Amino acid sequence: MKDQHAKAVTASLVGLAMAISGCTVAQGAASPAAPGRAVTQAATQAATQAAPQPSATPAAGRPAVQAPAPPTPGAAIPKDPARLARALTGTTAHLRRAIDDWRRTGDPATGQAPEPVVLLALYQQRVYRYLARNPKVASRTYAALPKALAGAARANVTAIRDLLSLVHPVSKPAKFRVEQPEPADALIGHFRRAERRFGVEWEVLAAVMFVETKFGRVRSPSHTGAKGPMQFMPRTWDAYGMGGDVHDTRDAILAAANYLHASGAPRNYRRALYAYNHSWAYVNAVLLHARQIKQDIRNYYAYYNWQVFVVTTRGERRLTGP
């Protein structure tokens, strides 16, 4: 988060994690990137084919249809738009069912997501990042997607592309401290509490935290001195932190709602978000992500499992996840 008097968005801002839907800017990281894994043909097919919905009451003599194994962390992304559309369609369908199962039989309030959710969300994120960097392929892929998914894909790709436009890869090594975020439903509790107090929609607060630090995964301060899971500059925190701890998730979310409210939300989210970070690309990306969460809460749980990448002069590296 910028200070009230900040005049520009700096491309190497660590807190813009962060502003890249999971992209920081650096050559290296203290936390090692997850190594690539061999991609088997079966795993690739699992990522590119939609599976039928398992039946709760399978026909006599027939076993229940099992969902395919989720893609490996390094599963190949098809380059052909038609195959890429099938991959995204199947992955999204599988991810939504896995999220439904997690919410029904797991406990998003106390633990991390099960492996299928994590792997499917990572593959979805990687597909969207690929599309964001390849506009011509993206346009042809949208045309091959079901109408409802095409709209979501455009929103996600546009948001990522907007945020990538703020980043310039650098070669100077930097260290990043990353950790597991608080449980997904625990964060929703913080967002809703802040919404009740300041009137700022919880989905907007969630989108800000997602863009800034991937829901608190990134704990390093920015090179400008912004700190905490919502990336506050010291002067702004002094004015709006209400005596809390900038590194405490609950305190930081409340302070963000306080600052956004003072800057115009909920009457004018665009003005409030521009005060938070002086970039219209940032504003557009946050609102696109917030709209996706409003349309389907499963998008929040998918975003929660998107991982942190760094953009370097040698390519992208992933710092978190499997």
UniProtKB/TrEMBL annotation:
Transmembrane segments: none annotated. Residues 191-279 form the Transglycosylase SLT domain. Residues 40-67 have a biased composition (Low complexity). InterPro entries: Lysozyme-like_dom_sf (IPR023346), Transglycosylase_SLT_dom_1 (IPR008258). The keyword Signal applies. It comes from the Bacteria. Residues 1-26 form the signal peptide. Residues 40-79 are annotated as: Disordered. Pfam families: SLT. Keywords: Signal. This is Transglycosylase SLT domain-containing protein.
